[in-house]
Amino acid sequence: MTRSTPLNILGWSLAALLALIAIVAIFVLTFDWNRARPYINEKVSESTGRSFVIGGDLQVTWKQGLKTEPGWRRYVPRPVISAHDVRMSNPDWATAGPQLASAKRIDLAIHPLPLLQHRVVLTDLALDAPNIALQRRADGSNSWTLKDNGPSAWDVEIQRMAFGDGAIRYLDEGIALDVQAKVSSTAPDATPGDASGNAPVQKYGIAFTLGGSYRKAPVTGGGKAGAVLSLTDNNTVYPVQAHAVLGKNKASIDGTLTDPRSLSGIDLQLSLAGASMADLYPLTGLLLPETPDYATKGRLLGKKDGASWNWTYQNFKGTVGQSDLAGTLQYLSRQPRPLLRGEVTSQQLRLEDLGPTIGADSNARKQARGKAPVQPDNKALPVEQFNTAKWDALDADVKFTGKKLVRTHDIPLNDIVANIHMKDKVLSLTPLNFGMAGGDITSNITLDGRQKTIAAQAKVAARHLKIRELFPKLQSMQASFGEVYGDAALTGHGNSISAMLASANGELAATVSEGSVSQFMLELAGLNLANAVFVKIFGDKQVHLNCLASDFAVTNGQADVRRFVLDTDTAVVNITGNVNLATETLDLDVRPRTKGARIITLRTPLYAKGTFKNPDVGPQKGPLALKAGAAVALATAVTPLAALLPLINVDKAPDTDCAAVMAQANATRKAPASPATNAPAKKVSEAEIKKAQQEKK
After folding, report:
1. What is the pLDDT of residues 221-250, one digit of tens each?
2. Which residue in 184, 205, 258, 475 has the most C-beta neighbors within 10 A?
3. What CA–CA distance (Å, rounded) separates 483 from 402?
4. Would you say 624 and 611 are in contact if contact means Cβ atoms under 8 Å apart?
């Protein structure tokens, strides 16, 4: 009996293993795999919950590994499964197409050794004439989520993927998007450069065209990408170029995707343009304000953080209307809301470009952007409502600095600084500061959107506004050296600027030191009411102003005059009454008193009534009738010269103590407690004003 040795045992074991491999290979090569199709179809259908069919020929061949594979693995033969006419169905409710995915032919190469570790490694996956139809319903459910069978004991890895001519359709009911892409092979382009320094970028090998609709508007576009998608290297970059027009929105990208198997990074040059930035919300989930036409271009960087993505729009430049914008913004995925942060700068902004953002856009501009007009012709205050339903879509911390803000027919603002904060549906501009007419405007504004109706607070301070710079077009103003000071502290409730002011509580105050006033100046400033009152009292001549002090108490939308004194070289004017911000109506009593006896043109107390849009200023009938009646009586009884006596003002008004009046007007005041809010706004503090002035320098 021959004794076995370890060497003999090893030899027989290797021979048995080789024989087994040979038997398996012979079986694989000679077995008619079409006989296994019914079993495969049944098992895949059962596992996925969808109908799966291999309708054509099913073959298995062998091939050697690629020469690019490392070490001995390239010599290990692997089976290549070729299946013809492969189809997987969509759910019954889908209207995008009967099949979730289908292909004229699928070739996949499997590495055999990892199967021993419960790993399915597809070294190559090639799709010929693929056709994919994806659909997402309005409730968020989709057609590509398959049956949940719990965690699998097998892991699947795809190393390389190649595409042939095919088509893809994506139907999204939630945003009314239906887009189709037709993919075709093309001659490889030259290799584009890779800015990141990673592995060489592959050549373009496929082209695609886009068509469809977005919110009933046509979608067009196209692009190109790499023909072979390598999924084995973390540093692999996949090139892509694309452009699309979705309704009034235009987008284009040009760059690379890093590690496509897990898509860990994106580096693209992104260009966007459209009728309003707010239209991007359905496509991106990013809450942006209503704007005029916009266009922007910058570098979009995406980095995967676990299951979420963080995005940076780096060094972008663009325009909104005729205003310019530049900066860097970051979008960070976090709970409970994502965060938008960064810095934005502008060399020149136009106020009319900001109109849609604050609800002060004109009806004509709304129609140009495809929005329905909402501003009534008889309303001066903006009635368009803020959409707080989307305020919890994200938090924000963005700093804006602007060199110049141009206002139509008005003097520009300069050195704008605004810190925009949004957290838990509370929007604040703290601060919102800017320079104006050689002075400074300092303000803090808060809009709390956590309730159905916005709770608003605003405090504003104006300091050292130069009269001559307020009206730079008037040559006669160059010698005027007066300054304007003002304060406002208001709270209110409402979802529009009009509604907030209609419920406002607080105070308004302003003082003007020595200067000059004329009808032309007021008309140029667009101050219709002030202009009308001025003409009634002073005519069309220029008047030297000694001082002006005004103070209003605002309660539930009604601004009552606590003090309004205007002192000039020729007269002192006192105004009483109220302005109703809810109804936009005026009810003011204007009492001019001349300095010195002089003949005047029926200078009598005036009324200022009407609306903000159509003010009505005229003489009060009672005093005017008395003077006119006395004149008629004297003319009849005595002489024509005596009839002038009632029209001669002998009630001389004393000079106003301007220093005392302005000191009193500038004294610290506190906003009254308000039934409309539990947190009345307070004036901007002098410390805040000084800080703003220092930052400006």
Report:
1. 999 988 766 666 666 778 889 999 987 889
2. 258
3. 24
4. no
User: For residues 636 and 429, what is the distance between their CA atoms, to the nearest angstrom?
Assistant: 68
Boundaries of every domain in the chain: 26-139+154-175, 447-462+482-494+502-679
| Cβ contact 518:541 at 8 Å | yes
Instruction: Kindly give the pairing relationship between strand 395-406 and strand 58-63.
Output: unpaired
| Closest by CA position to 106, among listed 90, 129, 88, 122 | 129
- Kindly give, in sequence order, each residue whose CB lies less than 8 Å from that of residue 1, ignoring residues fewer than 6 positions away: none
Report d(CA 587, CA 603) in Å as an integer: 19
Contact 389, 333 (CB under 8 A): no
- Alpha carbon distance 651, 592 (integer Å): 11
Residue 5, classed as helix, strand or coil, is coil
Residues 666 and 689 sit within 8 Å (Cβ to Cβ): no
CA–CA gap between residue 282 and residue 273 (Å, rounded): 15
* 617 burial type by CB count under 10 A (0-12 exposed, 13-18 middle, 19+ buried): buried
Residue bearing tokens 């010195």: 596
CA distances from 547 to 464, 567, 569 (A): 14, 5, 10
59-89, pLDDT tens digit by residue?
A: 988 887 777 666 666 777 788 999 999 999 9
The answer to whether the beta carbons of residues 493 and 676 sit under 8 Å apart is: yes
- pTM for the whole thing? 0.67
Q: Are strands 395-406 and 349-350 parallel, antiparallel or unpaired?
A: parallel
Neighbours of 146 (CB within 10 A): 13
Q: What is the DSSP letter of 277?
A: G
- Helices (DSSP H) in 594-667: which residue ranges? 621-637, 658-665
Instruction: Average the pLDDT over 421-425 and give the result.
Output: 91
Please report which confidence band the pLDDT of residue 152 belongs to, taking 50, 70 and 90 as the band edges.
Answer: confident
Over residues 20-33, mean pLDDT? 66
- Distance separating alpha carbons of residues 361 and 373, to the nearest angstrom: 9
Q: Distance between CA atoms of 211 and 222, rounded to whole angstroms?
A: 9
Q: Which helix H or strand E contains 296, and what residues bound it?
A: strand 294-305
Q: Is 47 helix (H, G, I), strand (E, B) or coil?
A: helix
CB 391 within 8 A of CB 287: yes
Question: If you write DSSP's letter for every residue of 535-602 in order, what string do you get?
Answer: HHHHTTS-EEEEEEEEEEEEETTEEEEEEEEEEESSEEEEEEEEEETTTTEEEEEEEEEESS-EE-SS
For the chain, helix (H) and strand (E) counts, in that order, are: 12, 37
Where are the alpha helices (H) located in 223-309, listed in sequence order?
281-284
Interval 651-685: pLDDT, tens:
444 555 566 655 665 554 443 333 333 444 455 56
Name 219's Cβ contacts closer than 8 Å, sequence gap at least 6.
177, 178, 179, 210, 211, 212, 213, 244, 245, 246, 247
3-state helix, strand and coil shares in percent for the chain, rounded to the nearest 5: 20, 45, 35
Comparison of pLDDT for 520 and 56, the residue scoring more: 56
| Nearest Cα residue to 456 out of 400, 386, 510 | 386
Q: How many CB atoms lie within 10 A of CB 650?
A: 9
